[in-house]
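ping. complex inputs:
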Amino acid sequence: MNFSFQSKIKIPQLLGYLDFIPSQFLLLILGIFLATGMGCKPKTKENKPVANFDRQLMLSQLADGYILPYSNSFSIASDSLNWAAQNYASNSSFSNLALLQNQWVKTYDAFLYVYSLNFGPGEKPIVGTLAENVGIWPVNTNRIEEKVAMSLTDFSQDFERDTRGLLALDYLLFDSISITKFTIGADTLKRKTYLLALTNHVKTWANDMSSGWIGYRNAFVNNNGKDAGSSISLFYNTFLLGYEVLKNYKIALPAGKRVGQTQIEPSLVEAYYSQQSFHFLQTHLTAITHLWFNISYQGANQSGFDDWLSSLSDGPPLKTQTETQFIALSQKVQDLQIGLPLSNRLQQDPACLDNLYATCQQTTRLLKSDLSSLIGIAITYTSGDGD
Amino acid sequence: MNRGLSPLLSPVSIGPLITLRIITGILMTFSTLRFMALGWIEDHYILPVFHFRYPGWEWVPLLSSSGYYLLHFLMLIAGIMVILGWYYKVAIWSLLISFTWLELIDVTYYLNHYYFVSLLLLAMTLVPAAGRLSMDSFRNPKLGLAFVPAWQVGMFRIFLGVVYLYAGIAKINYDWLFEGLPLRIWLPANEHWPLVGPYLKSPWVAIAFSWSGMLYDLSIPFLLAWRKTRRYAWIGVIVFHLLTALMFQIGVFPWVMIGASLIFFSDPWHEQLHEKISNWLSIPFQEKPILLPSFQVRYGLILAMIGLLFHLIFPIRYMAYPGSLYWTEEGYRFGWRVMVMEKAGTATFYVLDRKTGREGVVDNREFLNDHQEKQMAMQPDMILQYAHFLGDTYKAPGMNPPQVRAEVYVTLNGRPSALFVNPKVDLMQVKSSDPISDWILPSPDTSSKNIFKYNI
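pong. complex structure:
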């Protein structure tokens, strides 16, 4: 549009009163501000020259060094789990059960490394996220038995997530009564069918995750802004969710710390039947730590949040603080790990998780508001603008 | 006619009001469509189980999901009617009420420019902005107008000018001017930009941007008002707001400000624009130089005066509160403090069951969406509302409400986070009218760096 500011139409200029403000006055005001601007040289001595942080490098290393190999390892583990289940279904010997149980632990470990990646291929429309579909507990054992009896194995037909996933397998494969039902009773065949449906469901998720990331990788690396919807923001938000699940569900829930709970609830530990809670707590914490530092599958220290903080003039104190907290958390989980499984330990010593929980609580704000504020990530996804 | 008022009542061209009406209608229609397309009706209004209400406005009814959709459709239709100038009075009131109703549902989504739009629409109910290029004036030539009293145009200029001035004053603080904060945190988001990208990391660039922003806000109303500087000022408006549009996720805000600034343009400029539009659309330019009845004009003028007085005073009500404005946020909202701080919090709530004496921790995700949790965790009035909601939710039948404590850490402009709420206080015993110092801890940074009382 071509705006002409000089008018040829003769209309009385009646609202000129704003134009009458003397120009000298305006120039004076401007002059004052400019003078103060030049005069007061900011004394920002503490602003060290900032190193450059390459977000795209962090994303590509995260994708190539962590996400792709760990998704692949989860995929391979779940294939093996499916084989082991088929093997056990055709020959339900104790040694085959032991093989299957062993493979289940390996698969769950592999799953925990990708547990926090619930975006992109880790999320399916309507169906939900990887964590919601593969990692829900406590499972509804009564409903599982019902579904076994009724041969309800088409998991696309309902949203009963507490009847499937790796923790439904925890019940099926480790509960002593459940195990006997594979070989004794009327429903052995149906039970094996349900077992295979479960391992197949996990395998499908894992394979989709792994193959999905091969296609998604470039889009992930190139979406290198910091706004809501950028890869960093997506990753950061789900990383945070992964951490909060550790704190609120794996620790606070069995410790009876949530509102409405009146006492410890040892049966609500993760992997109650296999009694692997401590081991998985350690794995989950390691995965969270590795994601923060961006430590690769091969163990290489890649460009992560620690490096990002180092590149900021105000970042190093938070980096040090967070590192200290991670070390403290890891130490506390290790200390707990000696001796009894978590559910038994809780019964003996109901306060055994308190110290770990308190440390988790101290760490939350460092990962949540302090980090996101300093590196300027939009924490909210999908919703809303700012001004 | 009162002599003192005569400059305000003297007739001026209706042109600026017509342009304002059309642009407002277009922006409202566009932003409503955008809001719907992004699925925000669902995210903002329907999915949350709890809404943070504005104090004093709790009576504004919450709606069913179809109610929220209906209100958005009403807003859409009203927006189009405003563009067309079709039943203007009905349209502008419908737009004002539907938009403001939606804003008053939940404090979480408060934005300065939403408040700006509500005030703008309110002011537009006072003026006959459909006197030209409108269905109303085609249907009924008697509704055509060439002139309006000067205050009807002047009020929008002052309204916009005051917004800019307050936005500029808010930027006169130590962090903004001398630390380049929070821009120093925000600018590097765009470091991948070609050419300029690498420079955005430099603290000096942040400080330069901070000063430019402050100077821009404080001078632009005058530079727009003055004929000789107007055209350069408007280029400044375009550059400034387009830059902010590219740099930050701030939705329609830049477009609202660019559009609204046209109100400063001269009458002949608007006249020419309208002639072009009418030629282009081949519609007649048929209004007669009729003035509005004087009683209507004076009645409106009194309302406008009251409105402008409110507009001047309300943003500085923070002066009546003790404590640091950016920390406590008492009197922070509705004050045109646009993007002047980076604040974030982490809030954990503990509910004590009086029967068992056991204290449980709340998972905020059970009740709040991410947006709500983020806003709540740093704003005292929202923390208190949420605490009371939790107390009511976990109240056992026939029992006293439980004790609710909060452990909240807040970080301001990237500083290490500090304890925000006194973790010993039972928030169920705190009323929103109580002094904030009863339960909010003082700002950790009370150094002499502060230029003004309201600073960090």
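Chain A touches chain B through 75 residues (CB under 8 Å).
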